[in-house]
Amino acid sequence: MRLVSAGCRHHANDNIADFIxxxxxxxxxxxxxxxxxxxxxxxxxxxxxxxxxxxxxxxVAKMFVQExxxxxxxxxxxxxxxxxxxxxxxxMIVGPITVRSACSHHLCPIMGKVWIGLLPNxxxxxxxxxxxxxxxxxxxxxxxIQEEAVTMLANELQERVQPDGLAIVMEADHFxxxxxxVKDSESKMTNSVMRGSFMKDPHLRRExxxxxx
Length: 213
Ligand SMILES: Nc1nc2c(ncn2[C@@H]2O[C@H](COP(=O)(O)OP(=O)(O)OP(=O)(O)O)[C@@H](O)[C@H]2O)c(=O)[nH]1
Fold this sequence. Notes:
The chain is built from nine helices and seven strands. It starts with a helix and ends with a helix. The protein is an alpha+beta fold. Guanosine-5'-triphosphate binds next to helix 6 and helix 7. It is an enzyme of class 3 (hydrolase).
C-alpha cells in the first residue's frame, strides 16, 4: 500500500527495502508461508500426514524471502569507495563472478557467470574487489530476466565508480529451458552491455573480450 501511494514500482526485480519497517519482513515471510501452504493444498498434497512436506511451506517462504530473492528486500550492501589517488586508467577485469538467480516467468533457476570490465579515469571511485561480487549477488537475488539484470548491474556500477568505460558480459543456463518446456539442456544465453570507451573503442572492446575467453 505504501509502495502504491509513493508511486514506487515494485516489479519482480525491483528492490523495496526502503519501504520495509523493522519487523515487517518477518510478517511478510509468515504471509508467504501461509499462501504457500495454500498452494500445496491446491496441489493436493496432504502435508499433515506426509512427513516430507510438513514444513515445506515454511522452508520455501524462508528460501524466497531470506535467500534466493533477498535482493528485493535487503538494502544494497555497504560499499566503501576509495579515491583514485594514483590516477589508474588501465583496463581492469573482474570475473568470472558466479550468478545465481531465477527467471521472472517460471521462477526456475538461472545459473551463470558475469565478467565486468572497467576503464577508470582520475575522477573515478575505486571500490573493493569483493564488492563487485556483492553488488552482483544483490541484483541477481531477485526474479530477473537476463537482459534487465545486466542493465541493472551496469547502472549500479556506473553510478558508484563513474568510469570512462564499463563492459559487462553474462553467460547463463536457464533452467526454464533445461528442466521443463523445450528441455534443451545445452543452450545458454550470453549478453553484454558496453558503455563509454568500450562502445567507442573497438580495440578496448576486443582486448576485454579476448581476456575473458
Ligand atoms: N528474453 C528472456 N527470456 C527468458 C529469460 N528467462 C526465461 N525466458 C523465456 O521466457 C519465455 C516465457 O514464455 P511463455 O511463452 O510466456 O511461457 P511458456 O509457455 O511456459 O514457455 P515455454 O518455456 O516455451 O514452455 C520462455 O521462452 C523462456 O525461455 C530471460 O532471461 N530473457
